[in-house]
Amino acid sequence: MRVAERHGLVLHFVSNSWMRLPESPLVRRVVVTEGPDAADNWIAERITDCDVAVTADIPLASRCLKQGAEVIGPTGKPFTASSIGMALAMRDLSAHLRETGESKGYNASFTRADRSRFLEALELAVQRVLRKRAQGPA
Predict the structure, then answer these.
(1) Angstrom distance (rounded) from CA 46 to CA 131
(2) Which phi and psi (to 5°) does residue 87 adopt?
(3) Partners of 119 in the beta sheet?
(4) CA 22 to CA 40: how far, in whole Å?
(5) In the 3-class helix/strand/coil scheme, how is 44-90 assigned residue by residue?
(6) How many structural domains comprise the chain?
(7) Most buried of the four, 18, 43, 90, 117, by CB within 10 Å?
(8) Is 81 exposed, middle or buried (0-12, 13-18, 19+ CB in 10 A)?
């Protein structure tokens, strides 16, 4: 929110159910119909190369990258055209290991370093998008 407010950017929160959000003229709540990937589809159909997506969903990150958007994960790790293939492969491998019982899955807790890395990555992504917007259509 603070980064969006600092730059005057609109935030879209997309989900398939209502959720409590901060009150701000910059916040847009989008509730899509229920169903597999309905929120992802809404995002992927509307995102442009002048937008930033924040998601932990690797297939959604891939779809956003194909539209030219800047994409970062919630811990600040950027998704790029050169890294998304490996991220998708690791996601599939992890799912397979969980299914076969080889791995119980593990989600590390969110640390101060993650927050700092996220805020830095978000600011850099926003700066790139703002430069694109200032240049106008190609």
Answers:
(1) 20
(2) -60, -40
(3) none
(4) 22
(5) HHHCCCCCEEECCCHHHHHHHHHCCCEEECCCCCEECCCCHHHHHHH
(6) 1
(7) 43
(8) exposed
Evaluate whether 30 touches 47 at the Cβ level (below 8 Å).
no
Domain membership of residue 73 as a residue range: 2-135
The tokens for 123 are 């600011």
Edge to edge, the sheet with strand 52-54 lists: 52-54, 70-72, 78-79
Query: Considering the entire predicted model, what is its pTM?
Result: 0.83
Q: How far apart are CA 77 and CA 82, in angstroms?
A: 13
